[in-house]
Design brief:
By secondary structure, this protein is of the alpha/beta class. It has helices at 14-21, 58-61, 71-74, 78-87, 117-125, 141-151, 171-183, 202-213, 225-234, 239-252, 262-267, 274-280, and strands spanning 3-6, 27-32, 44-48, 66-69, 92-98, 131-136, 156-160, 165-166, 190-194, 200-201, 219-223. Helix 1 (14-21) links the parallel strand 1 and strand 2 (27-32). Helix 4 (78-87) runs parallel beside helix 5, helix 6 (141-151) crosses helix 8 (202-213) and helix 9 (225-234) runs antiparallel to helix 10. Residues 8-182 form the NAD(P)-binding domain.
């Protein structure tokens, strides 16, 4: 029976990934910083450790066939972790990354959150082990939170860069794709780009949010980047990330968004729409009631 080691197991992708794989015939070992026994089924073994010191993971690597690498969990330790993985018997690596990984690192907003996607990809591809890199479309959540907070209370919603477009992926689809790559050893030396089913502008995102919230008709007007940054910071994001996000919108304005069919190809079902994502997360977005 295959043994899969999951880093970043207590995060927004890692946790549902572990829960999805727990339904399959595999052994699971979850690595995080604050996992508790109640977080996962009893069949899941877990360890809390700091991957800034990857040698601490050696006992887990010795038991694993396949390793999932989350860039924020692994950070600057990626190269050392890959050396240890190869040395201690891991036979295959799957890494999470992002569509903008080939951009100048200084222009990648998520680096301010610790996502060293380029370094992780380089380490994984250079490990000498069979690998797959799953590149996800940038998550729309920060902008969605910004739009939803306005749709809940006002008649006017300010939209930064209304014509900026991307194809946000539902985390459920991303989790399913990663699970498939971890389970299917035939998928090797592949970069898999995972997106939502269609490109949507910020204006269209706002309209969907208003529809789900039952707040239509609302009036939409363009929000200045500076105001958007301040509101994103007020919502709890770092200023560096908020400024990087708005800079990316400005830089890519008018550029066609990447849209792929990988979700359908690898899971057998079409990618979930943004409207489905909003409905699934309406409670967290405080759009109900």
């Amino acid at each position: 029976m295959k043994t899969i080691l999951i880093t970043g197991a207590s995060g927004a992708i890692g946790r549902p990934l572990v829960l999805a794989l727990a339904q399959r015939r595999v052994r699971l070992r979850a690595v995080g910083r604050s996992i508790q026994s109640r977080d996962f089924p009893s069949k899941v073994d877990y360890v809390n450790t700091d991957l800034a010191e990857p040698e601490r993971l050696v006992p887990e690597l010795e038991k694993a066939d396949t390793l999932f690498v989350h860039p924020r969990a692994v950070g600057a330790s990626a190269a050392d972790l890959m050396i240890l993985a190869a040395k201690h018997g891991v036979r295959r690596i799957v890494a999470l990354s992002t569509l903008d990984v080939e951009e100048d690192p200084a222009l990648q907003p998520s680096r301010s959150l610790g996502d060293l996607n380029r370094e992780v990809e380089q380490a994984v591809m250079g490990s000498g082990l069979p690998w797959v890199c799953v590149r996800a479309s940038p998550y729309a959540r920060p902008v969605v939170d910004l739009l939803a907070s306005q749709a809940r209370v006002g008649a006017v919603v300010g939209v930064p860069y209304p014509s900026f477009a991307e194809a946000p992926v539902h985390e459920r689809d991303l989790t399913e794709v990663i699970a498939r790559t971890l389970l299917d050893d035939k998928l090797e030396e592949r970069v898999i780009e995972v997106t939502g089913p269609a490109a949507m502008t910020h204006q269209e995102l706002a309209e969907v949010i208003a529809e789900v919230a039952g707040r239509r008709p609302l009036r939409f007007e363009e929000m200045s980047p500076a105001t958007a940054v301040n509101q994103l910071v007020a919502n709890g994001l770092s200023r560096a990330f908020a400024e990087g996000l708005m800079a990316r919108c400005a830089r890519e304005l008018g550029r066609p968004a990447t849209v792929t069919d990988e979700v359908h190809q690898l899971t057998g079902h079409p990618a979930h729409t943004f409207a489905t994502w909003v409905a699934d997360n309406a409670g967290q977005l405080h759009l109900l009631g």
